[in-house]
């Protein structure tokens, strides 16, 4: 007689192990998101969304840019992250008592950060809340979502409105001339890396003596 088990497809032990690992990782990720503490700010607590042209920096790059921002902002400094959420998340991990930070971002998932989150659409560069006073940030870190002059030009309006002077721009190497034209920033030696490799070469630009050279 036939064995009833025969017609049930069996997963190989390898596949099963891989599946279990996958579910475990997912559970851990979900757990990280919900467990309180600084974890909610760690990279990955909000996954990058390519539809929104989001590309997270590698952990190392995000740390490096966050630390640069803190030094550049100085004691009690105010830092604005414009479309640069992975730097914002690193700044939150640093948990600075002597600096404050705002995130201007199109992705509404970042509203979990409460009043530090400001909804931002580069198509309306000066459509900002009234309490965001002009020239009230010691440094603005910006990563325009698209490699186009139009996007850079509009984001530049926001940056110039917000900053007291210092600008740290992250964008493609192809934007060097436009970055100089619209923001007066120069390319740094530091090469930012992303958690996934991008097709376009990416660079940082500043208009002050930074630690990125």
TrEMBL record:
An example Gene Ontology molecular-function term: nucleic acid binding
Q: Report the subcellular localization.
A: Cytoplasm
What span is annotated as the signal peptide, if there is one? none
Q: Which GO terms describe its cellular component?
A: cytoplasm
Query: Which reactions is this enzyme annotated as catalysing?
Result: L-lysyl-[protein] + 3 S-adenosyl-L-methionine = N(6),N(6),N(6)-trimethyl-L-lysyl-[protein] + 3 S-adenosyl-L-homocysteine + 3 H(+)
List the GO biological process terms: methylation
Identify the InterPro entries for this entry: DNA_methylase_N6_adenine_CS (IPR002052), Efm5/EEF1AKMT1 (IPR019369), Mlase_EEF1AKMT1/ZCCHC4 (IPR041370), SAM-dependent_MTases_sf (IPR029063)
UniProt keywords, alphabetically? Cytoplasm, Methyltransferase, Transferase
Q: What is its main location?
A: cytoplasm
HAMAP family given for it?
A: Methyltr_EFM5
PANTHER family hit by this protein: EEF1A LYSINE METHYLTRANSFERASE 1 (PTHR13200:SF0)
- Name this protein carries in UniProt: EFMT1 methyltransferase
In its UniProt entry, the species of origin is given as: Campylorhamphus procurvoides
What gene is behind this protein?
Eef1akmt1
């Amino acid at each position: 007689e036939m064995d009833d088990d025969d017609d049930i497809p069996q997963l190989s032990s390898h596949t099963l192990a891989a599946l279990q690992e996958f579910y475990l990782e997912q559970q851990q990720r979900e757990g990280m998101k919900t467990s309180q503490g600084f974890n909610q700010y760690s990279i990955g607590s909000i996954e990058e969304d390519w539809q929104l042209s989001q590309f997270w920096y590698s952990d190392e790059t995000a740390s490096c840019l966050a630390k640069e921002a803190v030094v550049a902002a100085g004691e009690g400094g105010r830092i604005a992250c414009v479309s640069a959420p992975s730097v914002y998340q690193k700044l939150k991990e640093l948990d600075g008592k002597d600096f404050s930070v705002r995130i201007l971002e199109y992705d509404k998932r970042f509203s979990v950060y409460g009043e530090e989150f400001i909804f931002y659409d580069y198509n309306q560069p000066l459509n900002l809340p009234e309490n965001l006073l002009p020239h009230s940030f010691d440094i603005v870190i910006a990563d325009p979502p698209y490699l186009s002059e139009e996007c850079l030009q509009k984001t530049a309006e926001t940056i110039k409105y917000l900053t007291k002077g210092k600008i740290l721009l992250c964008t493609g190497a192809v934007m060097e001339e436009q970055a100089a034209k619209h923001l007066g920033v120069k390319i740094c030696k530091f090469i930012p890396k992303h958690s996934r490799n991008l097709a376009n070469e990416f660079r940082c630009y500043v208009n002050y003596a930074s630690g990125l050279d």
